[in-house]
Amino acid sequence: MSRVVDDVAAAVNHLFGFPETMEKLVFHSRSNPEANENKGVGSSPVDILDSSKEYIFYMDVPGLSKSDIQVTVEDEKTLVIRSNGKRKREDGEEEGCKYIRLERRVPQKVLRKFRLPENANVSAITAKCEHGVLTLVVEKLPPPPKSKTVEVAIS
Fold first, then answer.
1. pTM (global) more than 0.85
2. How far are the Cα atoms of 96, 105, 147, 148 from residue 91, in angstroms, in the given order?
3. Which residues of 43-67 are buried (b: 16+ CB within 10 A; e: fewer)?
4. CA separation (Å) from 92 to 64, 89, 96?
5. What angle do CA 81, 44, 135 make, to 5 degrees?
6. Residue 31: enclosing H or E segment and its boundaries?
7. What value does the CA radius of gyration of the chain take, rounded to a whole number of Å?
8. Sign of CA dihedral 34, 40, 41, 42
9. Is the four-CA dihedral 16, 20, 23, 29 of positive or negative sign?
10. Which of 13, 110, 146, 151 is at a distance of 20 to 30 A from 39, taking alpha carbons?
């Protein structure tokens, strides 16, 4: 299965001309040894925007508040988004009240990991959670200065 995912990733990369750093950011490997620890964890879809100054992640987190979500950076370049997936049910105000229908799902636990590119500034990450959408902004480091060639005259 992971070979199929890798082949699809390569085809999409070729078709849309994603730079290699974007491919690594977007297409994380499914043949991950951590896959077994993530059983029962929902995989919320994430949109990633690559702008000139930053990477912006948009993730739907319906029913979760900012206190339910934890964002960390592990191993210097791995962005990790977690939640425990719990939501409190509203109780009726009167005694004897009971639900006659429960259709809203309790949010699943969320665990998403993204390997950040080398130019990501892990010290400048901001997050906000509004209207059920988590938005993470990862600033880019300025490009390294280009090496300058100086011609030396031979006497």
1. no
2. 10, 16, 66, 69
3. ebeeeeeeeeebbebebebeebeee
4. 21, 10, 8
5. 55
6. none
7. 22
8. positive
9. positive
10. 13
129 pLDDT more than 70 = yes
Query: Above 90 in pLDDT, residue 48?
Result: yes
Question: Which candidate, 91, 124, 89, 81, places its Cα nearest to that of 106?
Answer: 89
**Do residues 124 and 141 make contact, with C-beta atoms less than 8 angstroms apart?**
no
Whole-number Cα distances in Å, 138 to 39, 110, 119, 123: 28, 20, 10, 9
Q: How many residues are listed for the chain in this entry?
A: 155
User: What is the band of 33 on the pLDDT scale with cuts at 50, 70, 90?
Assistant: very low
> Nearest CA to 115 among 66, 57, 58, 67?
57
| 3-class SS of residue 77 | coil
Type and span of the H or E element at 11: helix 2-16
Helix (H, G, I), strand (E, B) or coil at 34: helix
What backbone torsions phi and psi does residue 135 show, to the nearest 5 degrees? -120, 120
